[in-house]
């Protein structure tokens, strides 16, 4: 594939017109490359009920806004699309964690808009639970502690430790996001994507992809430079794709940490042009993932192949989920 320009001058009017429906979602669907076929997990319906039960058990559903938000985000559906081959037990953990992160992220965004410092008690509790196994004092902390228990019961000690480390990075990322949102200075695109990679919360799920395999990966496979690059590419593509579909929602809410909006600020262009620039960046990321995976695949064990396929599943799953989830319905109403 030829290298595409990252400037907006070569995105002609013809690129943005003549697309069936002429809305932003059609623009994305037309130009975004998705080499991984759509798949779902047969346990999705059971896991959907399990998420609702778990939210009630932990007390998170007691907040009046949570059930409606869960209905609009469909965490079990996202888990199903991302992990079509997972058994029902592991898929339930993934879906519970997705639901928890949606609740945690929305609450952190609300609190962080009042000032980054107001986030500290909330984040401190999470870090204490993940790092020191401390007793929680809030429903969010109790939900995280229960997730930590589920992960330790299902995963190997090394996998559970990696899950905790990546989850702490996600918690820290929310503080960085709050600081960036509070700053009036323009946010550079590179800094925006760096923060986005943390707040996405994708990498905590990679150890669960490993847990779905017959064997634990060797250190040589897990820490191989190509495998580490695949993990980075997977996390970036998996969160940048939802950024395309959420750009309208984020712009209306004054959000800063979004790939499409970062391109709009950097190039001072319209949102459709910014979305096209973001699509080109995502397409290059996916192409690199596919090429590197094909290159290293013959040298990997079956479990390592399954692990990398699990990371690819997050790219595919986030794409198909973002297209239809009610949370991003505004995309279909935005003209291209």
Automatic annotation (TrEMBL):
Origin superkingdom: Bacteria
EC number per UniProt: 4.2.3.162
Keywords: Lyase
Keyword Amino-acid biosynthesis: no
A single GO molecular function term of this UniProt record: lyase activity
Identification of the protein by name: (-)-alpha-amorphene synthase
Upper classification of the organism: Bacteria, Bacillati, Actinomycetota, Actinomycetes, Kitasatosporales
């Amino acid at each position: 594939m030829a290298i595409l320009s990252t400037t907006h001058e070569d995105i002609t009017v013809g690129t943005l017109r003549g697309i069936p429906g002429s809305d932003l979602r059609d623009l994305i669907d037309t130009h975004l490359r998705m080499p991984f076929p759509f798949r779902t997990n047969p346990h999705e319906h059971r896991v959907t009920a399990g998420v609702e039960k778990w939210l009630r058990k932990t007390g998170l559903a007691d907040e009046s806004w949570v059930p409606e938000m869960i209905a609009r985000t469909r965490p079990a559906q996202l888990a199903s699309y991302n992990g079509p081959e997972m058994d029902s037990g592991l898929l339930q953990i993934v879906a519970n964690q997705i639901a928890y992160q949606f609740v945690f992220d929305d609450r952190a965004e609300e609190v962080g808009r009042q000032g980054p410092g107001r986030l500290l008690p909330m984040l401190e509790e999470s870090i204490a639970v993940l790092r020191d196994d401390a007793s929680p004092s809030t429903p969010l902390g109790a939900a995280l502690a229960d997730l930590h228990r589920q992960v330790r019961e299902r995963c190997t000690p090394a996998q559970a430790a990696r899950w905790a480390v990546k989850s702490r990075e996600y918690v820290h990322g929310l503080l960085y996001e709050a600081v960036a949102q509070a700053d009036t200075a323009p946010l550079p695109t590179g800094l925006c994507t760096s923060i986005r990679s943390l707040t996405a919360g994708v990498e905590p799920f990679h150890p669960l992809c490993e847990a779905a395999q017959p064997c634990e990966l060797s250190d040589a496979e897990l820490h191989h430079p190509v495998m580490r690059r695949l993990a980075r590419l997977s996390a970036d593509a998996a969160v940048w794709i939802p950024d395309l579909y959420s750009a309208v929602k984020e712009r209306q809410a004054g959000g800063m940490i979004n790939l499409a909006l970062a391109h709009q600020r950097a190039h001072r262009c319209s949102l459709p042009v910014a979305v096209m620039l973001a699509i080109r960046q995502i397409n290059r990321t996916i192409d690199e993932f596919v090429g590197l995976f094909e290159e290293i695949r013959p040298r990997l064990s079956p479990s390592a192949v399954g692990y990398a396929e699990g990371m690819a599943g997050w790219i595919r799953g986030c794409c198909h989920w973002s297209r239809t989830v009610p949370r991003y319905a505004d995309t279909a109403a935005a003209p291209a």
